[in-house]
Design goal:
Elements lengths: L21 E4 L19 H7 L5 E4 L2 E4 L3 H4 E2 L9 E5 L5 E4 L9 E5 L4 E4 L2 E3 L11 E5 L11 E4 L2 E5 L3 H9 L4 E6 L9 E4 L2 E5 L9 E6 L4 E3 L2 E5 L3 E3 L7 E3 L2 E14 L9 E3 L2 E13 L6 E3 L2 E3 L3 E4 L4 E3 L8 E3 L4 E4 L38
Parallel strand pairs: 1-2, 2-5, 3-6, 4-7, 5-8, 6-9, 7-10, 8-11, 9-12, 10-13, 11-14, 12-15, 13-16, 14-17, 15-18, 16-19, 17-20, 18-21, 19-21, 20-22, 21-23, 22-24, 23-25, 23-26, 24-27
Antiparallel strand pairs: 28-29
């Protein structure tokens, strides 16, 4: 059982539409002779994405798929506002992207390069990467052409782990000043908008106890929502940088983060503004929730739990209400079970102020006063 996944609601894809409604990928397929049908599938998610049209669903069947180089990692499809493209693991976490080949210049497991695209249900595992060409990013949202926007896209229900958790790779990355993340939303030329990272689990980013200012579990340089995620045992947690504004960070659980659990900040005056950070839990971090760099007006931090951090909460310009500094009572953090025990003060103590996500990490409905963190335990 993958940590944090028991009790998941039924998993099913959206209905495909358009000229190619459904495209199939399987480990038994072939990118050269396959036709993308269920009977004659392609072999790689990259090939399936390359032929997708607005409205397509790329169904990726269970199995291990190589990631890293362009032929395997690059997801180049572009949808539209009316007809999004979905790249979908047919079994939740059943399509597993592994680092068993040279990553080349990509240095990432999967690279989402087109707008109006949703990536759903994959596991990205960097634990096999031991050579000199390793991943610095598990899942990357950006376009190789820095002048081309990638907007209105999402990574949902994905697991990303063991990114630069190898000490040799980590040291090489640090000596070469390489930044990275479990899931990274990039924004070259500051033209990307609406990147959403939802219901994801990210852990073991960096070797245990190691600190880097350039390595994060989830990092965002564009506008969007970062909600219902579980992040633990990593160098940095969920962070913004460069020119964020209007970011929503809610219902996340972060644990055992060497630097900052949740960080809001910019590097340019006039940004780092109007961000909403609600109903999160941050435990055993350097800073639980913090503002850093440059921040402006309109940042609010409501009904968060910050416990046993070196500094629980540290704000520059934002305002906080109803912060709890009491133990949220995880069932067993040592076993990566971050559900809440009976009697947890985080239960039914969140804010109902907008935005509130109506479901939790397991797809369960949030009713009444929401529980803090990624699980709607009652």
């Amino acid at each position: 059982m993958i940590p944090g996944t028991s009790g998941r609601s039924r998993w099913r894809p959206p209905a495909g539409t358009g000229t190619i409604p459904n495209i199939y990928v399987a480990t038994t397929g072939n990118d050269s002779t396959g036709t993308g049908t269920k009977a004659n599938p392609y072999a790689t998610p990259a090939k399936g994405a390359s032929v997708a049209q607005p409205g397509s669903v790329v169904h990726v069947l269970p199995g291990n798929y190589s990631g890293g180089d362009a032929a395997h990692a690059n997801l180049t499809c572009i949808g539209t506002a009316a007809n999004r493209i979905t790249i979908f693991s047919e079994q939740l976490y059943g399509a597993k992207i592994i680092g068993n080949i040279n990553a080349g210049s990509n240095r990432c497991g999967l690279w989402l390069q087109g707008s109006y695209t949703d990536l759903m249900g994959f596991e990205v595992d960097g634990s096999l990467l031991t050579d000199s060409s390793f991943w610095v990013i598990g899942i990357y949202i950006s376009n190789p052409n820095s002048g081309t926007a990638v907007s209105h896209c999402s990574v949902q229900y994905c697991i990303c782990h063991d990114i630069m958790s190898n000490t040799t790779n980590f040291n090489t990355s640090e000596s070469n000043s390489l930044g990275g993340a479990g899931i990274q939303s990039n924004n070259p030329n500051f033209i990307n908008t609406d990147h959403n990272i939802l219901n994801c689990i990210v852990y073991n980013v960096a070797p245990p106890g190691r600190i880097s200012s350039r390595l994060h579990a989830i990092t965002n340089y564009a506008t969007g929502n970062y909600c219902n995620n579980l992040v633990y045992n990593s160098c940095d947690g969920i962070q913004t940088d460069h020119r964020p504004t209007g970011i929503v960070v809610c219902h996340n659980t972060v644990y055992n983060i060497q630097n900052t659990g949740i960080r809001i900040g910019a590097d340019t005056a006039g940004f780092g503004t109007n961000c909403t950070v609600n109903n999160n839990i941050a435990v055993n971090c350097g800073w639980g929730i913090a503002e850093g760099g440059i921040t402006g007006s309109g940042n609010v931090y409501n009904n968060n739990t910050c416990f046993n951090n070196t500094t629980n909460i540290s704000l520059l310009t934002g305002t906080q209400t109803n912060t709890l500094t009491t133990d949220p009572l995880f069932v067993s953090a040592a076993a990566a079970n971050f559900h809440l025990q009976s009697g947890s003060p985080a239960k039914a103590s969140g804010t109902t102020a907008s935005p509130v996500f109506t479901t939790d990490l397991l797809g369960r409905t949030r009713t009444g006063t929401p529980t803090r963190g990624c699980y709607q335990d009652t």
